[in-house]
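Methods — Computational structure assignment.
A single polypeptide chain was analysed. Its primary sequence is given first, followed by the predicted tertiary structure written as structure tokens.
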Amino acid sequence: MRKVQSPSLSGVSRVLFSAIVVLLMLPMAVYGGVAGAGGPAVGEALRFDNPSYSPDGKWLAMSDGRRDALYLYNIADKTVVEMANSPSGGYAYNWAPDSTRVGFKRLIPSGQGALPLQVPVFFDIGTQTLVSLCPPVQRAGVPSLAATGQIAFSVDEELRIADVSGTTLKTFALGHYANLTPISPDGTKVAYNDRDDRICVIDLATGERKALTSDENAYFNPVWSPDSSRLIVSTVSGQLKVVEISSGTVHELDEGDSPSWGPDSQTVFYNKVDRVPSVKVNSADLCRIQFDGSSMTNLTRGSGVQAMAGRVAPDAGKMTFVSLADGELYEAPLIRAAAAATMEGPAGVAGGKAEAGACSLGAAVKLDVEGAGLSDMPAAVLDSQPDAQAGDEPIAPEAQTTISKAVPYLHQVYDTPDNFNGHSACGASSAMMAISYYERLPYWDVTCSSPYSHVSHYGRYVCQIYSYNGYTYNIAGRDPNGNWFYGGFGYIIQNNWEDTKGHMRDYFINHSISSSVDWSPTWS
């Protein structure tokens, strides 16, 4: 089990760090079956995610539910081919503007105990071959493709501009590693995150660099408009914005994720999710908004379909999305305002009378992608993939564990004793979730009053003295109110937060759970 290295953290950073830690520590099976391995487990239905139409509208690319495998669906003859299958292969990918190639990144097992190597590649649809853009490296980025034929991707801290043969045409030093470096469709600029998580652009002709964001927010995932004039950007806090490249004007959109452009470069589509954190999703809807933040429309309000990852077709006449209810792909017509205004009741996924000037989705049809006959990659594709380093035994992803029961949830504030301020106990609380999953400790009940009276089985272990396996957790640490507490909290933050990663590792080992720290990642 691995924890991520970080510098000295405080406040929100500590919360984010511990959230990452617990995700890496717990057995993972987001969709059931084996996590980290491509394809569904035996007897498991194939789920989908991250669909995207080709610019010519003839193809639909999509990932499996874990975003490992990447598929290509022929809309005309309804056949499917698997383009690749490796951990996170379907997390991010990019279409070439001429619809002939799809760029993405593969992870290659590199040897026992070592992290996978990374290879930027593109899938050539005409020849159905996978073309590597460089040998396997420790860190590479997701390739993006321009109408000019140029391909942009990062290798460690360097941005490379290559042609379709993989020949490097230009390089730019970024000063840090950036995974997403999308090239504008017209091939003139590349957007990326700088060291301070600002969104910047490089002019590929002059090398001039320009920061487009300058406020206190951390930004990521720049998405070019089809006409190369604007970028959608996301903040870590979940806000969507549009930046005008020429003027630097920033338009506030809405809270949401998974943004994409309409073909007119004026319209943005995105997801909006209402959830009870760590409990349930109340609703998941597709929304449409103008690039300047005006004319927001919820396309699926009240439908109950739990729509995610929506993408509009190049002719703006339909959308494809994934339903959280069953993990299947659906397609629905996008109804224009004039027609939508006459709708009095639900039609498929659309519900209620549409507002004037709004759009809605019509009746949705499930795409039977799995039933279309999922083909394995052609031999030519397999032959062109880079091999692991000579002499190394392939390794399986570390998180190959099937969850057979629910992981107990422990809220660091609401599920710990009332006299303890748990706002800085994210590490101990997430660690106790893993310990309780493995049933190392008996219930030690405490009645908590917020947000309503309830019994917490494990909250006292977070902050009170207890003994287990010959060790007594009586090291004191101050909570945000300045009061001294013990248990897992005091143990992990001992000596003024000197090494929360190492102490959390030892905390697991003391409870007879294997754990180690990976010290190799840099902050970037």
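Note: Confidence is low (pLDDT under 50) at residues 1-44, 339-357, 375-401.
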